[in-house]
């Protein structure tokens, strides 16, 4: 099963071309950071309705570069959500840690160190402990049966020191694997769970109802991006065992693939500016937040997350029952 999204086929240049800024067919400007990973998008106001040709150009750039940076955007929560909806249906948050309270729209994830009143989260709180898991390499919502297609994170307040976000290109990491390894991992399936990643930081005190709400799910270890045909690894700290392997061997393989993917040559580090909107393709990237003093500096980010069309195993034609 392959998913098709509008605006997918047209790309602006072949892989490996120059990285000079370019004008798209219409008004936007695309400035690649590297030939095929991460690009800045200029001459666009996401608070306004986009012309169809500009939206098509943004989508084509997204399929190619996987991470897009839109600087100097002034967005309300509704405008943020409206832009995200151009890529598919929105996904709800997990609800873990905040006790049902939210200071922002329920469709947005509150990626901040702030409580319901806008003050610092208690350093000893369960919420802070849970959010520290975001500093592990992960891809959003791979712990859901239908995982995330893309995430769009908007910066309202940034820390003056630290608090960057790092992105790893799992497509390039797959391409760099030895042929023998690529053959070994083809059509393997890993079990993903939010509780796997939190266990990595020592957080295990979840209620049965929380675990029942988010049961483990299968995801393909290698998947194909339908808009480009590129193969990519699909690993994350949420991944635990690999079906058909001894548990220790499977976990070791996942850790090896994460270590391979997060080598410096595959990673871009984003230093946030207020009013940056950054969106990334969760199907072929991993990301993590870097350390900052979250008891001293406020960091207020809102994230919209768009769901994929189906489970990755279904998309790859793998029977993971």
How are the SSEs ordered, and which strands pair?
Elements: E1 22-23, E2 29-32, E3 39-42, H1 52-65, E4 67-70, H2 77-85, E5 109-112, H3 126-131, E6 148-157, E7 165-169, H4 170-175, H5 179-185, E8 189-192, H6 194-200, H7 208-213, E9 217-220, E10 222-224, E11 231-233, E12 239-242, H8 247-261, E13 267-270, E14 277-281, E15 285-289, E16 300-307, H9 312-316
Parallel strand pairs: 3-4
Antiparallel strand pairs: 1-2, 2-3, 4-14, 5-16, 6-14, 6-16, 7-13, 7-15, 8-9, 8-12, 10-11
How would you explain this protein's 3D organization?
This protein has helices spanning 52-65, 77-85, 126-131, 170-175, 179-185, 194-200, 208-213, 247-261, 312-316; strands at 22-23, 29-32, 39-42, 67-70, 109-112, 148-157, 165-169, 189-192, 217-220, 222-224, 231-233, 239-242, 267-270, 277-281, 285-289, 300-307. With 321 residues, the chain is α+β, with helices and mostly antiparallel strands. Strand 1 and strand 2 form a beta hairpin. Helices cover 23% and strands 23% of the residues. The protein is built from nine helices and 16 strands.
């Amino acid at each position: 099963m392959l998913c098709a999204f509008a605006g997918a086929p047209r790309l602006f240049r072949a892989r490996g071309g120059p990285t000079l800024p370019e004008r798209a067919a219409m008004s936007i400007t695309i400035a690649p950071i590297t030939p095929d990973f991460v690009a800045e998008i200029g001459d666009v106001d996401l608070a306004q309705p986009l012309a169809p040709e500009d939206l098509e150009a943004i989508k084509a750039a997204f399929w190619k570069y996987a991470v897009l940076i839109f600087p100097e955007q002034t967005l309300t929560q509704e405008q943020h959500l409206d832009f995200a909806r151009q890529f598919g249906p929105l996904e709800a948050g997990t609800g873990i840690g905040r006790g049902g309270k939210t200071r922002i729209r329920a469709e947005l994830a509150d990626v901040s160190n702030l409580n319901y009143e806008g003050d610092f989260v208690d350093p000893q709180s369960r919420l802070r402990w849970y959010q520290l898991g975001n500093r592990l390499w992960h891809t959003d919502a791979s712990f859901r049966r239908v995982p995330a297609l893309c995430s769009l994170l908007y910066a309202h307040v940034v820390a003056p020191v630290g608090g960057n976000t790092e992105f790893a290109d799992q497509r390039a990491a797959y391409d760099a694997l030895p042929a023998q390894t690529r053959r070994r991992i083809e059509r393997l399936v890993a079990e993903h769970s939010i509780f796997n990643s939190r266990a990595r930081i020592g957080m295990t005190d979840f209620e049965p109802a929380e675990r029942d709400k988010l049961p483990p799910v299968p995801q393909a270890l290698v998947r194909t991006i339908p808009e480009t045909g590129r193969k990519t690894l699909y690993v994350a700290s949420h991944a635990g065992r690999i079906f058909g392997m001894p548990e220790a061997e499977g976990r070791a393989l996942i850790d090896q693939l994460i270590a391979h993917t997060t080598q410096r040559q595959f990673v871009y580090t984003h230093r946030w500016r207020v009013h940056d909107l950054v969106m990334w393709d969760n199907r072929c990237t991993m990301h993590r937040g870097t350390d900052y003093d979250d008891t001293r500096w406020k960091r207020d980010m809102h994230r919209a997350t768009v769901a994929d069309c189906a489970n990755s195993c279904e998309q790859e034609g793998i029977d993971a029952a």
